[in-house]
UniProtKB/TrEMBL annotation:
The keyword Cell cycle does not apply. Pfam families: Methyltransf_11 (PF08241). Residues 52-147 form the Methyltransferase type domain. Its EC number is 2.1.1.-. The lineage of its organism: Archaea, Methanobacteriati, Methanobacteriota, Stenosarchaea group, Halobacteria. It comes from Halobaculum lipolyticum. This is Class I SAM-dependent methyltransferase. It is an enzyme of class 2 (transferase). It comes from the Archaea. Keywords: Methyltransferase, Transferase. PANTHER family: 2-METHOXY-6-POLYPRENYL-1,4-BENZOQUINOL METHYLASE, MITOCHONDRIAL, METHYLTRANSFERASE. The keyword Hydrolase does not apply.
Length: 227
């Protein structure tokens, strides 16, 4: 019998749309601003090993590698085989397939002593318990390590809130089939709550937190040094 679990359905959904997602992730409106904002806020030192959870097709890779330099290492982790396949193909075409690992962001498949910084991009809203995940990532890098988040949520900025209904439709369209029914609520509402929880947890765990909003308040970026 086929596995119909939510996790398996999500993997299948994102694998099927991997190339469309890759096009949006690299050339969609505002994505360069979002990705640069994450790299700037995370600010990993040269030579660092940076892990990105929910890396997708590794669109953040060049931004983070520019920070850590040739002596540093980027490691991408994602649960969907389809998006990782696209990421590996793109890396191989550029002469460096990179370090891309299939794994669950809630159970990091990495040694704590090997990671200097970690981040998650557009993944907080997909996690049933984002607070625990962020705490696990903080434990992975340990005191002095860098932790960053990049997410999308409905804006609270006057003048931009008129676009919130359209954003809600965007979130619903980008969710696996049956998500709204399984949640019993609007996917955008759940995403807002999970994103707020993840970023609040990061602020509780870190010092010198850089928290900013971009793209009319729809983009949320937070980063800091784990205490």
């Amino acid at each position: 019998m086929a596995d119909r679990s939510p996790a398996t359905s999500a993997q299948t959904f994102y694998s099927r749309l991997a190339r469309l997602y890759d096009a949006l992730a690299r050339r969609g409106p505002g994505v360069d601003t979002l990705r640069r904002s994450l790299a700037d806020a995370l600010d990993p030192p040269p030579g660092a090993t940076v892990v990105e959870f929910g890396c997708g097709t590794a669109a953040n890779r060049p931004y983070l590698e520019a920070r850590v330099g040739p002596e540093g290492t980027y490691v991408g982790v994602d649960f969907s085989p389809g998006v990782l396949r696209v990421a590996r193909e793109r890396g191989a075409a550029g002469g460096d397939p990179g370090h891309l690992v299939r794994g669950d962001a809630t159970r990091p498949p990495l040694r704590a002593d090997a990671v200097d910084a970690c981040c998650g991009a557009f993944v907080s809203g997909m996690l049933a318990d984002p607070a625990t995940a962020v705490r696990d990532w903080a434990s992975l890098v340990g005191p002095g390590g860098r932790l960053g988040l990049l997410d999308l949520a409905r804006t609270t900025r006057p003048g931009w809130r008129v676009l919130n209904p359209a954003f809600g439709l965007f979130v619903r369209a980008g969710s696996p089939p049956g998500t709204a029914e399984a949640l019993g609520r609007s996917p955008a509402t759940v995403q807002d709550e999970r994103v707020a929880t993840a970023h609040r947890t990061l602020r509780e765990l870190c010092t010198d937190v850089d928290a900013r909003t971009v793209l009319g308040g729809f983009g949320r970026v937070s980063a800091g040094t784990v205490e």
